[in-house]
Each structure stands twice: as structure tokens, then as C-alpha cells.
Amino acid sequence: MPARRMSTERLHLTLMLILTFSTGVVDAVGYLGLDRVFTGNMTGNVVLLGMAVAGGDDLPVLRPALALLFFMVGAALAGRALRKAPSGWSSATSCTFAAVAVGAAGLAVLLALVDVTADEVLGSVVTSGLALIMGIQAGTAKRLAIAEVTTVVVTSTITGLASDSRLAGGKGKHWVRRALAILLIGLGAVAGAFALLVDLWVGVALSAVLSAVVAGAGHLRHRQDRHEQRRKEPALAS
User: Fold this and answer.
1) pLDDT digits (tens, 9 = 90+) for 184-232
2) Half-sphere exposure of 202 (CA within 13 A, CB side)
3) Is 67 helix (H, G, I), strand (E, B) or coil?
4) Domain ranges across the chain
5) Phi/psi at 17 (5° precision)
6) CA-wise closest residue to 93 among 79, 107, 74, 105
7) Residue 127, Cα to own-chain centre: how many angstroms?
8) Angstrom distances, CA of residue 220 to CA of 8, 93, 225
9) pLDDT tens readout for residues 34-79
């Protein structure tokens, strides 16, 4: 008897959890390897900027500000690209996630070939580029609307896990995916930190591979679902 295929909804959840892990990797690379910049978690950048404005010693300003700006640009680009796309996964969704993979791969190549830590401008280009693709990722994930998984932040996820728990008198809805999202972004940060022990480009390359897997798997299921729907239509018509 053939193995039962994973449902499309569960597959999409799995893919978004993979991207959550990937965000942890990229944020670790940005914060530990590129002058304390969060390229996925914009809350962190806002806090850093606030402390820097208040006179915090040796806190970066330019790169977090640029990351915040380019993240918003990336999210806006994703919103524009998906504005007329149907709900759920579509060809446009595959393209935006593929753009994230290509962008991350390009930045990984740059990091492998050039010592960007020695050049202020190149370092800012890399952190801004990472923020741009993370914005595209976040904007696309938002459109997919997988409950409790944004791929870039887990503060609301932690809040929901606690406030909806049985300890708080709730029913614990979505506790598994919430817990997994929190765990995976943390594990991604661990992986990103270890990747830095090899070289700066390794973590970004890992993120590129994961994004490519997500784009490919999602697109393949999208095509399969469309094919099955087309097969059903003649039967329903008759």
C-alpha cells in the first residue's frame, strides 16, 4: 500500500518552519559576523537604534537603519508581486521564494570572494541585501497566512503559546507549531553561529539552499494540486 501523501496544508506549514530555521541562521550571521545587525528580526534593529540614539556605547546605527529600510522594501516588493495572485500557493509565490534563494546565493558568493568585514560599504551592502530578501520572505509568508508562523519573528508566537496554554486556562491550540517555530529559530541561530566558525559565507549559503528547497517543494506541490484539480473538473461537469 503506497504511503499516504502529506496534505498540502501540512506541507506548507513544514516549509514555513524550514524558513523560520533559515531566519535564525541569517540573523546569527548578521549579528555575530556583520556588526550586530538583525537582517530578519526587525524588532531587534528598532531596539538597537533606540539605544544608539540614547547614547549607547559602540552601538551600530547605519547598518540597522539600512536593514530596517531594505526589509520594508523587500516586503513591499513581495506585496506588489503577490497582489493579484490567488490565495494560497501560486506561481508568483514560487517566484518570490526563488528570488530569496537566488539573492542569498549571490550574497554567499560575494562573501566567499571578498572580505566584506574590511570594507564598510560592502558590509552595509551585504546586510542591506540580506534584509531585502528577508523582507521578501516575510511578505510572501504573510500572504500564505500559515497560522502562528511568520518565519521571521517569534515574539507573538511565544505570547500565544503561553496565553493560550492550558496553564492559562486555554485549549493550547497550535501549541505544537508554536513550539516548533520557537525551537527552530533558536536552532537556526545555533547553526548560524557554528557556520561562522568555518566562514562568513557558509550560513548564508545554507539559507540559500533551504530557500531553494522551499521554493522547489512548494512549486512542485502547487503543480500537482493544479493537475489534480483539472482532472476532477471534467468528472464534475459530467
Assistant:
1) 999 999 999 999 999 999 999 999 999 999 999 999 999 998 888 888 7
2) 11
3) helix
4) 8-76+87-237
5) -70, -35
6) 79
7) 15
8) 11, 12, 9
9) 988 999 999 888 998 998 888 777 788 889 999 999 999 999 999 9
Instruction: Quote the CA–CA distance of 182 and 220 in Å, as a whole number.
Output: 27
Q: Residue 211's pLDDT is what? A: 98
Taking domain 8-76+87-237, whether its CATH number is 1.10.10 is answered by: no
Band (235; pLDDT cuts 50, 70, 90): low
C-alpha count within 13 angstroms, C-beta hemisphere, residue 191: 21
Contacts of 88 (CB under 8 A, 6+ apart): 144
Pair 33, 196: CB distance under 8 Å: yes
> Quick one: pLDDT at residue 2?
46
pLDDT single digits (tens) 116-156: 999 999 999 999 999 999 999 999 999 998 888 889 888 88
Give Cα separations from 135 to 43, 110, 153 (angstroms).
13, 20, 12
Helix or strand holding residue 2 (H, E)? none
- Answer yes or no: are the C-beta atoms of 29 and 36 closer than 8 Å: no
Smallest Cα–Cα separation from 134: which of 70, 181, 85? 70
At residue 169, what is the residue type? Answer: G
C-alpha grid cell, residue 106: 549571490
CB-based contact 181:149 (threshold 8 Å): yes
Asked if residues 51 and 59 have their Cβ atoms less than 8 Å apart, the reply is yes
